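ARCHIVE CARD
Drawer: 12
Card no.: 0347
Subject: one protein chain, sequence and derived structure
Cross-reference: see card 0346
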Amino acid sequence: MLAKPLRVSAPGKAILHGEHAVVHGKAALAVALNLRTFLQIRPCDRGKVLVHLPDIGASLKWEAVQLQTLLITFSGGLDESKSPTPEQMDKLKEFAGICSGLPTIESLATLSFLYLYLSISAKYRQVPPSVEIVVWSELPTGAGLGSSAAYSVCLAAALLTACGAIGCPLEDGKSIARWSEEELNLINQWAFRGEQVIHGNPSGVDNSVATWGGILRFQSGKITSLKRVPTLRVLLTNTRVPRSTKILVAGVKDKILKFPAIMNPVLASIDAVSQECESVLEAMAESPSLEYYPVLEELFDINQHHLNVIGVGHASLDRVCQVTATHGLHSKLTGAGGGGCAITLLRPGQSSLPLELRP
């Protein structure tokens, strides 16, 4: 149980290859970034549950007894093995006073917190704890860098610790610690449920990277950590064009259903790009050489064309690709697309100074 303040953090991610195709059973390669989300949780002796989200200017407050009453009215099981139901989401929206329509970042953050807070309390038969939580991040929201997954992972880890489901790994005199593999797996399972609340039908890539870190290969729910890979330097460009992952994922699905004979080969080609990239990275780790970079760059170009074909490109991302190309660099979107961020591969020694994008 939580007896003193605890701070947890989780990294953001960038997808090298496999965006959207991963939702349809293809492989994706994702890397953890050195940009993180932080959460501090401490016991609250005033019988309240407080959540402060300064990055989006939101503060949430409830009486703990209100949440206990809400938990009693929930129908069906609340479990890491079960997806959130529409009925549960409707009840949470009603409780939080969230209107129907296009969800806001604050409303999604609220629903994710409420679902995880109630579900974890119910699963481990604990009275919902009185806690105060503060979350802040180095990651921009809505940019395809895994901000919601890092948020969900931090929430899951903190709430599981508060309810005694996992231990606190921090030893006296230490400032950094890591949970066991078994505990990380449990954190990841709950974080995926938080991602479902936010995104509807996420692949599981983002929360897996935020939980495990490093470089992961993800396919059909199977996560493989790539042990021998080189360190890559990349330039991230935030287009600042907002978009909804849920809407983009649904759009790709609709296009596949409408043109299966056309779209399925595109997804297969994206899968082949991911596999080829993995092979190149392993070869680079065995025998570092600049000769591999032209291959990685060409894979970036091929995949960016595929992503435009399946309908997740945007004029702002095209502009990034054009401008970086004038400097001999190769770029692609990373994440859901439709805006968000672009990733540019940098060779060793190349400048990572921002490039000017003029309208």
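Annotation on reverse: The two ends are 54 Å apart (CA to CA). The beta strands are 6-17, 28-43, 48-53, 58-63, 131-137, 215-219, 222-225, 233-238, 330-334, 341-346.
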